[in-house]
Every structure is written in C-alpha cells, then in structure tokens.
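Problem 12. The chain below contains 260 residues. Write out its predicted structure in token notation.
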Amino acid sequence: MAEPLVSILVPTYNQVPEYLSAAIQSARLQTIPVEVCVCDDGSDPSQENVVRSAWLEDGDATIKYTWQSNGGVASALNGCLEMATSDWIAWLPSDDLYTADHLQIMLEAVEAELSMVSGYTSAWPVAYSSYEEGVPIPQARWPAAQFPSREKQFEALQRGCFINAATLLWHRSVFDEVGGWDPRMAHAQDAEHILRCAERYSFLAVHHYGVRRRLHPKQMIHPLRDPAERAKKEADMAYLKERYGVTGGVWVPEEPKQLH
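Solution.
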C-alpha cells in the first residue's frame, strides 16, 4: 500500500450512523493514497461500529480510530491530528462528503502554483476550495475567492469567515508553527484557527467544488437555540473580536450561486 499523501481528520460525536459511514466512504475512496483518522469524542458504541464496518470494505485507505472522553470539536480534531502521519492535512466533518477526486485536485493545484515559485512550504501552505450545500442534490454553490495579498485576505476574514473548514488543506508545517485547535472554543474553533493561520499565511483559493456540505436538523447551528449554547457562542465571538478584531459573524460568506 502506498504511503498516504493526505491525512483526513474526521472528528465525530453521536453522528447519524448513515452520515458517518458516507463521510468515511467518501474519504477512503479518494483517487490518491490517504489515511482516515477518526476521533470519537465520547460517543456511544454505534460510532465505533460504523468505523469497524468501514475497515471491512475494500479500499486503499488506512483507517485509524480512537475514542476519548467528550471534550468538544476542537479536542476531537486535536485527537485526530495526533494520529496523522502525512505531510498534508484535511478535515472532513462527519456529516459532509468529498468528491472522489477532491484531494488530488487540491494537491495538483498547490503543486502547479509551487512550480512557479521557490520554497515548498513557504508559498502556499494552506489551500481551500469552493463547496456545495446539499446532499445528494446540491442546492447552492459557494465559490472560493482569492485575495491579492495576505493583508486583504485577513481583512476579509475579520468581516466574516467565508472559508468552509471542510475545504481546507494544510501542510503539516502550519501546525508546527501555529498549533492545533483551541479547545476553549465551543462553537468557533474553526474560525479561530483559520484566523490564526491567516495572520501568517496567504491561502490559495482553488476553484473546484469538491466538498458537499450536508444540510440536516442536527447540524451545529441548531444547538444554538439553547440559551447556554448561545452564551458560549457569544463568548467565542467576544474573544475573536478582542484577539483578531473580528467585526462580523463566524459564517458571513458572499452570496451563494443558486443552482437551477
């Protein structure tokens, strides 16, 4: 079996089994060698059963699994990261999907850009792509936008996080420099980590719809109807405002292109 080119992080917590199974399937069937790192954040045994079923399927991907006491998404992501061995890192939420060629296209885009510049990890150590909402039928498309400078990119992120973390591809050197996800963040761990990276790096936008975001009643936005969870979100946003000068919400992207 070929060495994995990308480690795909899949944090999960009591996910709908069919969604988790589909996410792992889309990860392990990538057209390049990958490893799938699943961290179960204190779920009931059904989550491990889904992963064990995936081990029995045919495929070239290595699937790794660990269970930990419930600590939140950031803690589970860090648990996934500890298992990862590849030079490139991606994050697939356990209810979303990759197209089969997603990571191959992302790596090829990075390599094409790097062929025109000097320095492997210093040029485009972070890339992100466009994405679609809706499974199995896409309902909207969100295009990735490239900025002329890191400063302009950071200013746009201060107004609102327009990057879906499921589309990101990081070189491992990024985590050596900025660290993993902050477990103090209950609902904005992705935006905080993106901002932390954006302070140091320009991101490459890849105009490719390789991620499909599933819309369903148990998404993270729905728990925010609970007053206690809303209070945690407000605390997250207050930190982002103080630390990074954020003025907008966590998810304020440009208007999607509706599909007809």
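Discussion. The mean pLDDT is 86. Students who got a different answer should revisit the alignment rule from Section 12.3.
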